[in-house]
C-alpha cells in the first residue's frame, strides 16, 4: 500500500513462494490468553484471591464492582460459569457498567458463544463509546471470524482513542501482515513491543514480517527474544526453526520443531516443519 494508511486492503493477495510465507499464514492466527480479561489487573485466579474477593462481597453484597472483579478472577481461573454469574450480578446491580459487559463478552467468546459476545461488546460500546477495551475485544471477535475490515476499523478506533493497550497494535499488525503489508505490520508490532516489552507476541509477529521481507538476521533476533521471554510457547520455537530451515541447518530446525510439538502437539506449522526437516 502506498500513501497514507486509510484502511486495510480488502483483497488479501496470496502469500507464496517460500517456507517463510507459508509459515506466516499459519502464524497470523495468534491465540488469546485470559490476560485479555478487560484489563482488570488486580484480579488473579488463585483460590486464595478468590476467597478474599468473596469475603469482600459478603461485606458489601450490593457493590457491583466487587462482583465484576471476582468474575474476572473466576475467568482467569477458567471457572467460566461462575464468572458469568458474577458479571450477570454486576450488570443487574449496575446496568450501566460497560466494563462488566466487556468482561462478560470475553467469557462468552471463550465459551464459543460468539453472538452473545458480540451483543455484549456492542452494549459496552453503546454505554461508553470511548472504551478502548471493548473495541479491541470486538475487533478480535471480528478478526477470528474472518471479518478483517470490521476488525481493522475497531483496532483503528482503539488506537485513535490513544489506547495504551498493546493488543490494539498487535492485532492490527496481524491484519497488515496477513495482507502482505509487512512494513506497516513491523511498525505496529514495534509499538506493541514498546508498550509490553516483556511479552513475546510482538516479537514473534515482527519476526515473521522480517522473515517475509528476507531479513533473516532481525527475524532470528526477534524469535530468540520471544524464547528468552517465555520458552513455553510453541509458536516461538517453530519460528526459530523456520530460520534454521531457511539457512539449511536441518538438524537444528528439527530440534526446534520437535520442541514446539512437545509444547503443542496440535501445532500444524511445527508438525509440517518437522516432517520437512527430517525428510
Quick rundown:
This protein is mainly alpha-helical and 279 residues long. It is built from 15 helices and no strands. It has a domain of 87 residues: Serine Threonine Protein Phosphatase 5, Tetratricopeptide repeat (Alpha Horseshoe), CATH 1.25.40.
Beta-strand proportion: under 5%
Compute the CA-based radius of gyration.
20 Å
Helix content: 55-70%
| Oligomeric nature of the chains | single chain
The global form is: globular
Q: Give the termini separation.
A: 39 Å
- Kindly provide the name of the CATH class of the domain at 40-126: Mainly Alpha
What is the CATH topology assignment of the domain at 40-126?
A: Serine Threonine Protein Phosphatase 5, Tetratricopeptide repeat
Structural class of the secondary structure composition? mainly alpha
The number of helical elements comes to: 15
Q: Examine the secondary-structure arrangement and name the CATH architecture of the domain at 40-126.
A: Alpha Horseshoe
Report the uncertain regions: 6-35, 38-43
Classified in CATH, the superfamily of the domain at 40-126 is Tetratricopeptide repeat domain
Query: Number of DSSP strands?
Result: 0
Any overview of this molecule?
The structure is a single chain. The chain contains 15 helices and no strands. It is an all-alpha fold and 279 residues long. α3 packs antiparallel against α4 and α13 runs antiparallel to α14. The longest helix has 14 residues. The protein is globular.
Amino acid at each position: 500500500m502506498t500513501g497514507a494508511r486509510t484502511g486495510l486492503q480488502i483483497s488479501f493477495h496470496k502469500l507464496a513462494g517460500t517456507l517463510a510465507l507459508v509459515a506466516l499464514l499459519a502464524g497470523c492466527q495468534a491465540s488469546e490468553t485470559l490476560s485479555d480479561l478487560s484489563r482488570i489487573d488486580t484480579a488473579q485466579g488463585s483460590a486464595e484471591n478468590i476467597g478474599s474477593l468473596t469475603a469482600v462481597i459478603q461485606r458489601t453484597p450490593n457493590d457491583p464492582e466487587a462482583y465484576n472483579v471476582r468474575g474476572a478472577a473466576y475467568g482467569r481461573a477458567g471457572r467460566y460459569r461462575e464468572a458469568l454469574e458474577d458479571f450477570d450480578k454486576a450488570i443487574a446491580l449496575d446496568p450501566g457498567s460497560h466494563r462488566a459487559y466487556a468482561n462478560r463478552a470475553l467469557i462468552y467468546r471463550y465459551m464459543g458463544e460468539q453472538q452473545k459476545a458480540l451483543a455484549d461488546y456492542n452494549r459496552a460500546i453503546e454505554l461508553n463509546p470511548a472504551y478502548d477495551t471493548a473495541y479491541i475485544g470486538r475487533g478480535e471477535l471480528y478478526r477470528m471470524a474472518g471479518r478483517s475490515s470490521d476488525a481493522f476499523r475497531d483496532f483503528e478506533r482503539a488506537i485513535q482513542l490513544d489506547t495504551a493497550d498493546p493488543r490494539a497494535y498487535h492485532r492490527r499488525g496481524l491484519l497488515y501482515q496477513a495482507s502482505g503489508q509487512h512494513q506497516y505490520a513491523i511498525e505496529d508490532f514495534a509499538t506493541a513491543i514498546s508498550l509490553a516489552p516483556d511479552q513475546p507476541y510482538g516479537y514473534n509477529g515482527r519476526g515473521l514480517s522480517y522473515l517475509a521481507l528476507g531479513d533473516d538476521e532481525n527475524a532470528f533476533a526477534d524469535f530468540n527474544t520471544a524464547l528468552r521471554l517465555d520458552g513455553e510457547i510453541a509458536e516461538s520455537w517453530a519460528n526459530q526453526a523456520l530460520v534454521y530451515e531457511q539457512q539449511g541447518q536441518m538438524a537444528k530446525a528439527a530440534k526446534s520443531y520437535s520442541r514446539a510439538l512437545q509444547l503443542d502437539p496440535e501445532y500444524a506449522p511445527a508438525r509440517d516443519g518437522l516432517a520437512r526437516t527430517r525428510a
